[in-house]
Design brief:
Elements: E1 3-7, H1 11-20, E2 25-30, H2 33-43, E3 46-49, H3 55-62, E4 67-70, H4 74-86, E5 90-93, H5 105-110, E6 114-116, H6 125-136, E7 138-150, H7 165-173, E8 176-180, E9 183-187, E10 194-198, E11 202-208, H8 215-218, E12 224-230, H9 234-243, E13 252-254, E14 257-259, H10 261-273, E15 281-293, E16 296-307, H11 316-333, E17 341-343, H12 345-349, H13 352-364, E18 369-374
Parallel strand pairs: 1-2, 1-4, 2-3, 4-5, 5-6, 6-17, 7-12
Antiparallel strand pairs: 7-15, 8-9, 10-11, 11-12, 13-14, 15-16, 16-18
Helix pairs in contact: 1-11, 3-4, 11-13
Length: about 375
């Protein structure tokens, strides 16, 4: 049985470990003992406490593994992935770090490593869809709208974090890039707000976030945007917090002590944003590929509406992100994908077989993307 080291046992990392445990010999690594105890006691998954901020501990964690998954918070992602590649291990990454993954491409090729990055829901599945249709038609406009939200709206945030709070705040601070008329445009996050109505939820608020990522480099599509979805009103209060400096990383002196406003904000917000046990939430995504196919105008729309799984007590965001990741790792293990170097998810989507493999894998786990075609 092939061995997989899963680095990170948060909400998504745990889901990844549980899914892979069906087929692989999995060992999960994290500094949080509660997460590890949950995996070992309930599922019989091997666990090891590890400080994944330390290079030597990363190397030790993956030394005997055949494959690795990088599911650490974004601020740790780049250096963690670099250590995994240095160890010569094929890897799938969902840390969504801010650095350019292609800076590790040369190293990955030298180490003969397949490293699939950004392999979640969006970025992730959106990229896979884009990669597939970019191969089979001329895309003139690509749009992606995505968000994870609780069913019950609670004042003041109407939001619950399904992954690292600091990574959530990144969506409100990192400058957003999109492509307009073939040129890269950089706008502040939370800009260009629009209201969109979805069948199962109602009206949500969409705003610019830096979710296109690798697509800006790999796709020659003249118009591309990615927007995050939240309940209406979110943009206004997040702009207030940002303008007041609550999201600043540079430390300030408070009563003689140096404190990062961002660290303090994350500490204060996490209890407010933490999902209660059994609390239901959902993931909504819409991907639109519009252009020409056989010289005809055509539009493909993929809609996802996924909800918390009561049977397994698994969050929707963990399912939609985690199962895309585990599908990709299974593809590597089964020899279906072996491109060396850094592979963003759109590279996977180029192949018809791999595209259908991912969709079927997700469908088997109840994550269903519904496609509608119009002319």
């Amino acid at each position: 049985m092939k061995k997989v080291s899963v680095l990170g046992a948060g909400l998504v990392g745990k889901t990844i470990a549980i899914d892979l445990h069906k087929k692989f010999d999995v060992t999960s690594y994290d500094i949080n003992e509660d997460n590890l105890v949950f995996l070992s006691k309930k599922f019989g998954i091997k666990t090891n406490k590890a400080n994944l901020n330390v290079d030597e501990e990363i190397q030790k964690a993956v030394k005997d593994a055949d494959f690795a998954v990088c599911a650490v918070p974004g601020f740790m992602g780049f250096k963690t992935l670099k250590q995994i590649i240095n160890a010569g291990k094929n890897v799938v990454d969902i840390s969504f770090f801010p650095e350019d993954a292609f800076k590790l491409d040369k190293l990955a090729k030298e180490k003969d490593v397949t490293a699939i990055v950004d392999c979640g829901v969006a970025p992730g599945m959106g990229n896979i869809i884009c990669g597939y249709y970019n191969k089979h038609m001329i895309i003139e406009k690509y749009e992606c709208y995505v968000g994870g939200l609780p069913f019950v709206r609670e004042w003041p945030f109407d939001y619950k974090a399904v992954f690292s709070p600091i990574d959530v705040i990144e969506e409100y601070t990192r400058p957003a890039r999109y492509i307009q008329n073939g040129k890269t445009v950089v706008r502040e996050a939370l800009s260009d707000t629009e209201l969109i109505t979805f069948k199962n939820i109602g009206t949500l608020e969409a705003f610019n976030s830096d979710g296109l990522r690798s697509l800006i480099k790999t796709m020659k599509i003249p118009n591309m945007t990615e927007k995050t979805l939240r309940y209406p009103g979110t943009v206004e209060y997040m702009k207030v917090l940002r303008a007041c400096g609550f999201f600043d990383k540079e430390k300030i002196k408070v009563d003689g002590k140096m404190i990062s406003p961002l660290d303090l904000t994350a500490k204060l917000l996490f209890p407010k944003w933490e999902l209660k046990k059994g609390e239901k939430e959902f993931t909504v995504m819409r991907v639109i590929c519009e252009g020409k196919e056989n010289r005809n105008n055509v539009k493909y729309i993929y809609d996802l509406f996924d909800v918390y799984d009561e049977k397994s007590n698994t969050t929707s965001m963990a399912r939609t992100t985690g199962y895309t990741c585990t599908a990709a790792l299974n593809m590597i293990a089964d020899g279906l994908y072996d491109k060396k170097g850094i592979s963003p998810p759109e590279y996977i989507g180029v192949s018809e077989n791999n595209f259908r493999y991912i969709l079927n894998y997700l469908n088997e786990r109840g994550v269903n993307y519904k496609m509608k075609k119009s002319f």
